[in-house]
């Protein structure tokens, strides 16, 4: 081959790189979540980003996170989160994130589903954590995958008892939650010797690999959907990503949480983050979508509207993260910590009665 001729192997490698099939010199796992989010954002007609709003939000978010000392250690500081760093805690977090979806209610604060535990009433995500802690206190092995597989012991009636409310409203989607437990118990038995610890070990220190394993092996973690114009499904993987993030935060980046690529995890696309990003002036909606959200109409899971709300929120937080790093190159900050901060912020706004727009209504197991 002469110097004037192109090297066919080099051309093939370059072609793969340009097509996104392979990264030159990088064989590390990728979740594909950010790429999918950017694609939806680029093709979105009902959700838009305000770049000035994102820049302003980056300044305010960074200042407040510094003031409040956001770090992985903040995760364990909450009274309901586990305090030990052991296999039992991994099992608790796996169960927690397996069932971490759909807590919203149309009822008033006094009437909505709530868990009474430790002389307090807990709603939303915290109702789940409180119910799991209460079940363990009562001797119910709710975090044991052997228990999930036992159709005589782990029944819908038992789950109703575990998640019994101190109001008249029942926890949403109980049958779906039981199905998630049953499926995951089977997968853990077949592939991971009944232990989520072995699932983490199989990821070999990669948060992205852990997310990919969850999406590959567990149907109830496979949060991916079609969006018009794209052959590959858009991967959002909210609960798979939050499991990796919670393990990282609980173990403070050590032991089971020692992920070399935790920064590849994006924010967790749910119904609260689009709301807070809209309130902060980062996201805006088309008039039809805005009307639907404000009227609290049901938005179908996997629909174009819902995909735009979730994916554009992921891309929005990524741009905020990049802006913070641009202004503060030494900042130890990732999308996980920004997500934790934004979730706490919207709950504070809710408690203060200062919501200027409701969250969108989508009932599903994905978030």
From TrEMBL:
It catalyses: queuosine 5'-phosphate + H2O = queuine + D-ribose 5-phosphate. Its EC number is 3.2.2.-. Keywords: Hydrolase. One of its GO terms (molecular function) is hydrolase activity. It comes from the Eukaryota. InterPro entries: Q_salvage. One of its GO terms (biological process) is tRNA modification. PANTHER family: QUEUOSINE 5'-PHOSPHATE N-GLYCOSYLASE_HYDROLASE, QUEUOSINE 5'-PHOSPHATE N-GLYCOSYLASE_HYDROLASE-RELATED. Catalyzes the hydrolysis of queuosine 5'-phosphate, releasing the nucleobase queuine (q). Is required for salvage of queuine from exogenous queuosine (Q) that is imported and then converted to queuosine 5'-phosphate intracellularly. Belongs to the QNG1 protein family. This is Queuosine 5'-phosphate N-glycosylase/hydrolase. It comes from Cercophora scortea.
């Amino acid at each position: 081959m002469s110097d004037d001729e192109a090297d066919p192997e080099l051309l093939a490698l370059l072609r793969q790189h340009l097509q996104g099939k392979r990264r030159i010199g990088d064989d590390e796992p990728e979740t594909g979540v950010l790429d999918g989010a950017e694609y939806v954002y680029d093709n979105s007609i009902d959700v838009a980003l305000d770049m000035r709003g994102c820049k302003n939000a980056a300044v305010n978010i960074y200042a407040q996170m510094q003031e409040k000392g956001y770090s992985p250690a903040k995760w364990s500081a909450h009274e309901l989160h586990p305090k030990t760093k052991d296999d039992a805690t991994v099992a608790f977090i796996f169960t927690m994130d397996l069932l971490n979806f759909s807590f919203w209610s149309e009822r008033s604060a006094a009437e909505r589903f709530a868990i009474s535990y430790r002389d307090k009433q807990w709603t939303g995500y915290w109702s789940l954590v409180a119910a799991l802690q209460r079940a363990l206190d009562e001797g119910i092995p709710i975090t044991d995958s052997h228990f999930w597989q036992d159709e005589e012991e782990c029944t819908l009636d038992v789950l109703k008892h575990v998640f019994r409310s101190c109001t008249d409203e029942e926890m949403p989607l109980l049958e779906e939650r039981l199905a998630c437990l049953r499926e995951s118990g089977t997968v853990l038995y077949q592939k991971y010797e009944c232990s989520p610890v072995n699932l983490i070990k199989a990821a070999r220190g990669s948060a992205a690999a852990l997310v990919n394993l969850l999406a590959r092996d567990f149907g109830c973690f496979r949060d991916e959907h079609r969006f018009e114009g794209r052959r590959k499904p858009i991967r959002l993987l909210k609960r798979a990503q939050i499991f990796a993030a919670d393990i990282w935060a609980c173990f403070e980046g050590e032991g089971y949480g020692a992920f070399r690529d935790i920064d590849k995890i994006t924010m967790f696309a749910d119904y609260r983050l689009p709301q807070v990003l809209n309130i902060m002036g980062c996201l805006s909606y088309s008039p039809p979508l805005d009307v639907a959200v404000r009227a609290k109409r049901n938005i179908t899971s996997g629909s174009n509207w819902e995909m735009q709300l979730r994916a554009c929120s992921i891309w929005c937080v990524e741009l905020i993260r990049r802006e913070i790093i641009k202004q503060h190159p030494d900042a130890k900050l990732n999308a996980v910590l920004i997500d934790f901060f934004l979730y706490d912020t919207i709950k504070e706004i809710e408690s203060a009665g200062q919501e200027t727009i409701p969250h969108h209504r989508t009932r599903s197991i994905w978030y």
